[in-house]
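FORM 7B: Structural annotation worksheet

SECTION A. Query
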Amino acid sequence: MSLASELVGLITRKDTATSRHASQKIKTLSRKLPPHIITALQKWALVTKEKMASPLDYDPTLPHYWSEHPRDKAFGANFNAFSSKSTGFSICHPIYHENTMYLATKHAIYSAALGTEATATFMFLPSWNERMTTNLYASLYRAYANSWASDQLQYAEILFWNNIQTPLPKHTWEMHIIAVWNTKGRNCLNACNKNWLKELGLEILEAKWEIN
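SECTION B. Predicted structure
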């Protein structure tokens, strides 16, 4: 197919997904993560992959990303983050649908537990309440993960959006970075820089992160 037809299909899929999740708490046209967060995770946490992304919002500085749509291969995407275990060091920012976030957290945990190579997934998940007690993925998070939290993080600005009358909405809830790793992954990070966690915190101080 031509690039033009693939672009039309991509935009149509985006519109369909937006409509499907219209009843969810989040109502925004983009969920692109701030560049300084991506840069910090690349620098201090060895991140090279982005899971559950889209050609419309993935970070192009990362060499690998995964989409839920097979046709997104035309835009360089890998297909279906759930089709195999996560390996290496990744970011995962799933759509804000409770079951999808639960499955993504579960997949990250199983990948780390059953994997034979160094694995760490840094998940970006919202908290609809202060202690995350009612989120479907909360029990997994409390049992298996480490996290940072912030109520200051905002999505990256979309440079081509110039409609002053209709500004892109901003989220109002707290965001968590949930780190899911295995021993090899943690040891690899420590071996590269024993102060990586402290340095990562300093690098993203702008977002006022607090470690749990």
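SECTION C. Observations
Residues 22-29, 207-212 have pLDDT under 50 and may be disordered. Residues 3-211 form a domain with the Rossmann fold fold (CATH 3.40.50).

SECTION D. Sign-off
Analyst initials: ____
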